[in-house]
Amino acid sequence: MASQDHDDTDLLSHQQEQELLDEFARREKARSIAVPTNDLQVKARLRELREPICLFAEGPMDRRSRLRYLLSKLSDEELQNLGFDREEEAGTSSGSDHSDDEQTEEFYTEGSEGLLKARQRIAEYSLARAQARIEREHAEHDIPVLTTKNHRNRINQRLQVQTIVVIAGYSGPPLSCIVLAEVPQCNIQMTFKGDYLATTSFDTTWRLWDTATQQELLLQEGHSKEVFGLAIHPDGSLVATGGFDGIGKLWDLRTGRSIFDLTGHVKEIYQLDFSPNGYHMASGSADNTVRIFDLRAMKCLTMLAAHKSLVSGLAFYQGPLDTDHGPATTMDIDTDEPRRPTQLSSAGTYLVSSSYDGTIKVWSADDWRLVTTLPDHGNKVMSVDIARDGQYIASCGFDKTFKLWGADE
């Protein structure tokens, strides 16, 4: 009797193991199926499978995931009949005597002539701006440490006293409207020269546009859920995107490759920003935290328990603008007048964050300590930014107002 029970247990264990292996195989197959990103095409494919084109409370991404799941349960022959492509694994062809010699062919998507010219142009001016930034850093390196410390202390003291300067609201119609896609567009940013702009979207992609021709140059996939956060590197060579999958990605505009994943957040990433020093970047998430990454070491430096609700906005102080090389990140120690290249910089010395908890917080970029909190916005703070001269912090809220915060002088 005991032997019979043992045999039954082994059989059940074997069945469970086989079911688990089958599920792993199905998931691997699902990842290899090219599923359309356009919601109308997804609905059309569901209709071909005689499945409901929409379920209750189902969004475009949920619908796309459902289509992928249904297709993964079909045989390869059925997939081919439906016109779906699937990458074949090397060595899976039965009856082939030389299957071990087969190699997976690398696949490239041909880019447009406009994309090639855009990448060449971005490479040209990003290299010049990177060189100018490094020269400024070398010049500042010779300034005594005590002088630098006193300069940073003065900045923090000025930031600690902030009062509301302007409160205003707007309830009129938009000045203009351009339809970019059939799904919600979440974020938009221009490159330094204004010749290209990037957008993020709920269809799990981000796109690069030519502002002169209003043509789409690049549609880039990579996230498994909606893409919301967006930032462009001060040199113009990199783009950072943050998704509802809790992952941030760093992209090289000159090659189109993803070069680094920003991991650590457990919920959606809503905001990203680069420091003007070129190697620090911040990410804000619905897990109420801000993470600081060092792009030189490709790792997270620190995690700030920033707010009591999701982080809706992030902004490093970028400094005065030099029309030739971007941020003229220098400042005279005594007069606070912008000068280059031998004086201290105020750019990148602090970071501001906003949140649905109704507060704005200012952080020192030296040690990532909290400098001050700007309260009483009245409701959810939707976004925050810093004036180029550093005199004002601007915020907008769910109460249909925007506010300017300035030093109490």
From TrEMBL:
One GO term describing the cellular component: U4/U6 x U5 tri-snRNP complex
GO biological process, one term: mRNA splicing, via spliceosome
Domain Pre-mRNA processing factor 4 (PRP4)-like: 37-90
Stored PANTHER family: PRE-MRNA PROCESSING FACTOR 4, WD40 REPEAT PROTEIN
Membrane spanning stretches: none
Pfam family, one: WD40
Acidic residues biased stretches: 99-108
Region entry Disordered, spans: 84-111
UniProt superkingdom: Eukaryota
GO molecular function: U4 snRNA binding; U6 snRNA binding
Name of this protein: Pre-mRNA processing factor 4 (PRP4)-like domain-containing protein
Lineage: Eukaryota, Fungi, Fungi incertae sedis, Zoopagomycota, Kickxellomycotina
PROSITE patterns (alphabetical): WD_REPEATS_2, WD_REPEATS_REGION
CDD domains in the cross-refs: WD40
UniProt keyword terms in alphabetical order: Repeat, WD repeat
Per-repeat ranges for WD: 220-261, 262-303, 348-373, 374-409
